Amino acid sequence: MKILVVDDSFLYLSMVETYLHEIPQISEVILCGRSEEVLEVTASKEVDIIIMDIIMPGITGYDLLKILRSDNKFDDVPIIMFTSLNDLDSYKKCYELGASDFINKPINVIEFQSRLKVAIQSKTSSNNYKKLLEISRKQNFELMEMNAKLKDTQFHLVQSEKMAAIGNLVAGIAHEINNPMGFVSSNFEILQKYFSRLREFITYIKSCYDNTSLENKLPEEVLIDEIRQLYKKLKIELILDELDGVISDSHNGVQRITAIIQSLRVFARSVQDDEKDTYNLNDILRQVMLISNNEIKYVAEVKTSIPEDFILYCNKVQIGQVFINILVNAAQAIKSQNRTDMGSITVVAEKDNNQLAVHFIDDGPGIPQEYLIKIFDPFFTTKEIGEGTGLGLSISYDIIVNKHNGTIKINSEVGKGTEFIVTLPINTSSKEDPFNV
What we know:
The chain is of the alpha/beta class. The protein is 53% helix and 16% strand. The chain is built from 12 helices and 12 strands. The strands form 3 sheets. A 5-stranded parallel β-sheet has the order 2-1-3-4-5, with helices on both faces. A 5-stranded mixed β-sheet has the order 7-9-10-12-11. A two-stranded antiparallel sheet has the order 6-8.
């Protein structure tokens, strides 16, 4: 936190600087002895909290407060007025101009540091909120950018089918995003409620400070008891205990959304056929599952048995497209059975000499023998009109056989299930065996 202190008294500037350095969250203290220099300082440096005197020669604290609050840059910057005035009109005027709080002269160390800690908490919450908003804006921009790129690639049949496949998954992806977004949104509502209670409590405490000079003030023991009762009523202790969890949950939700969008970006972009590199097979499958999860999780359990050191030299986007196609087809086949139990999809991999075979095994309805010889033919489909183009497996065959020099085979028995076997050569850009890495 960077704190700007404005006061025409060198003594108070030195005193405040000393007190501020005792607060660990504060990283930098900027001292300003002339109010005329404030705008120049804030133009060249970002500050998180401003403390300034009301009565100063030249530009007064009132004038400076009005100028700062007219600039959107300082909307969420707590501005604390530093004053020896104790009349209510002065307080009222400062609040009307946008002051966040007051610190009375002469300085009471406990009061000073307590008010600063409240301001720091307020600014920290505001910064976290802005970061979350920025992440949302960035993700929205990336989604818009990705959508534009996808539309530009529709000129090619393969890319068109790829986009159609992604289109079929959009509802599922939206559902996967809505889950974490739902509790992030819920947490914001909780934070708003907690902030309201904390503000109510802090406002009451402040009113106690403001009324200390009134003749009819309450006895100290009565005042302490009222504060204690309000503390219990507003459940401040519970709020403080839960805040870390609420913020942590929101952070995890944002990370989940980011992971989904990043995976979608990887498999949605257009690539050249020869754009290949070495990739971990498990990493590819994890991203594939993240995208296709909503299509599968309600109808089948997916089990994988793949060594973590299995490496492929491939076009990641194209291989991911093949895996998505096979997994989603398996899930849709299982779903068509209208069964009451969950289906099963097993993915296993094995190395044979210089080849790596990936097996996709499901316990779905199986494929009739007369269809097996047509399964990789362009436009062949057993789905209803409008539900499939018949290009998915044809494109998968082209990717595996023609673009990766591999094989794709199918074994199936009606009533027992289907197995797809994708075999790829373990070629790398170097002469090293990737399994010895």
